[in-house]
Amino acid sequence: MQFTLSSPAFSDGERIPSRYTCDGENVSPALEWSGAPSTTASYALIVYDPDAPRGTFIHWVIYDIPRGLNGLPEGVPRDPVVEGLGIQGVSDFGEIGYGGPCPPRGNRPHRYVFALHALDLESLGLGPGARAGEVLERIKGHVVGYAVLTGTYSR
To answer: TM segments (predicted)?
Structure first.
């Protein structure tokens, strides 16, 4: 079975509805996944914009997501620790939790990559507020599966 990531809010390669952006309510979209490897002990999700003017921009970091979950609900609170869902890191907005697409006006559509890592670790041993680079360093050698969902957005 293939490890896949999807959202009821938008399909892969499609435009992210404004509700999930800085032009709307700026809430995280619901995510669903299936087909994770049997050796999965937890998940880590990093959402990034590879098209940002100054280089890759991180929009969301959440890790130590329990292996028993097969998705995240819409509107994950911006709390450092979300009971039953995981621990949140700091985005490049400088804040804990999800920060939606907010590209400069008039540019071509930016891509927003939701990258879900299935890990063979139950915990990364990081407290709340880790940056994407710290998470990526910690998961090296522990990724047992990887699923991606990409949306686009322009203003």
So the answer is: none
What is the C-alpha to C-alpha distance for residues 34 and 154, in angstroms, rounded to an integer?
29
Which residues, other chains included, contact 152 with Cβ-Cβ below 8 Å and sequence gap of 6+? 13, 14, 15, 16, 109, 110, 111, 112
Instruction: Classify domain 4-153 by CATH architecture.
Output: Alpha-Beta Complex (3.90)
Mind listing the pLDDT tens digit for each residue in 10-40? 999 999 999 999 999 999 999 999 999 999 9
Token pair, residue 23, equals 């032009």
DSSP secondary structure of 1-68: ---EEE-SS--TTSBPPGGGSTTTT-PPPPEEEE---TT--EEEEEEEETT-TTS-EEEEEEEEEETT
pLDDT in tens, 57-78: 999 999 999 999 999 999 999 9
